[in-house]
Amino acid sequence: MRKIKLVLQMLVAFVLATLAYTIFYEPHQDSVRTTVQQQLSKADAKQSAAFSGFFAQEQELPSGKLRITMLDVGQGDAILLEDGQRRVMIDVGDNKKDKLGYGGRTALKMALGKAGVQENVDRINTVIITHHHGDHLGNVQWLAGKYKVSNIYDNAMPNPKNSVSNWLNTELRAGHYHNRVLKAGERVEFGKGYYLDVLSPGDFLSKQDLRNLNNTSIVMMLHYGEFTMLFTGDAEAPVEDYLQQKHGDKLKAHVLKVGHHGSKTSSIYKFISKVRPQYALISCGNKQIYNHPNKNVVGSLEHLGAKVLTTYDHGNLTVTTDGKSFEVTTER
To answer: CA separation (Å) from 202 to 136, 145, 183, 208, 215?
Structure first.
């Protein structure tokens, strides 16, 4: 008898619940869903705004400091310099993704965003293209328009096989951007004690050397107070050998942007032993695709006392200096 009563009570409860749903909820379910979605959207917006505010605060650069960010753009180079007054980029990554779908414009935009630089909002004053290979200049046309670029410097050695290189060469030679052709002996000054000395390319390169566009790379020593960092583009062994013979220990730098993504074609021992960096930063894509960096290159750098970091392993790599000391931080 008790079991029958219990079953009846459950049936009555079910009927009442069904009636309540039909009368009170079902006719208004769309509006209920809309209300819920609106509330969730508001919550997401608040969370995003709070995060954006926090992120912007984290990205604020103290006066008298320089921040250098090697951006994680996959297989390519894109390096951002910020001193609180201007932004400079050395190379801008590739506009093409790798076969696994990483890289390209999306990766550059995301990496810049993580560094606090927003499309159609923030300005990048100057772009320096080290050489005319796609993985170094691929995004230049897009970036110039989206980030209000006014100065584009290069080596004036275009790559006729690359459509972006052809576009850039036409634009620069027509005077559509303020351009400087950077060769050995040039100096690019950004402020007191903040400048780039250009070490290569120069007349020391033979026609045979220059057939390899990597050897046309603009090699530069950055000075910010007492801090130094060497940028090498994709310069290979012939360039490195000449530079180590000519400059010797003057190549010594606190940080090295390792040449050609850590490939075995660059970073000859004679050269890196003159640079002897405390940190060696490598911008590279998936090792399974590109086989960068080369294990012997990494081994040599570590043998010389450098801490080696790659964008593939650590995301954006950031150097911050006040001109006397410096620190290196990673995204992950």
So the answer is: 20, 31, 6, 13, 10
| Cα distances (Å, whole numbers) of residue 57 to 50, 61, 72, 318 | 11, 9, 21, 16
Query: Cβ-count burial of 204 within 10 angstroms (0-12 exposed, 13-18 middle, 19+ buried)?
Result: middle
Q: How far is the C-alpha of 137 from the C-alpha of 105, rounded, in Å?
A: 11
Token digits of residue 223: 């000075």
Helix (H) or strand (E) run with residue 259 in it: none
Global confidence as pTM: 0.82
How does residue 39 score in pLDDT terms, banded at 50, 70 and 90? very low
Distance separating alpha carbons of residues 150 and 169, to the nearest angstrom? 15
- Rounded alpha-carbon distances, angstroms, from residue 315 to 56, 143, 331: 19, 20, 5
β-pairing, 326-330 vs 87-92, is unpaired
CB 243 within 8 A of CB 230: no
DSSP designation for 60: P
In this structure, the number of other CB atoms found within 10 A of the CB of residue 175 comes to: 8
**Can you name the residues that pair with 151 across neighbouring β-strands?**
126, 178
pLDDT digit string (tens) for 76-119? 999 999 999 999 999 999 999 999 999 999 999 999 999 999 99
- Residue 300 DSSP SS3: helix
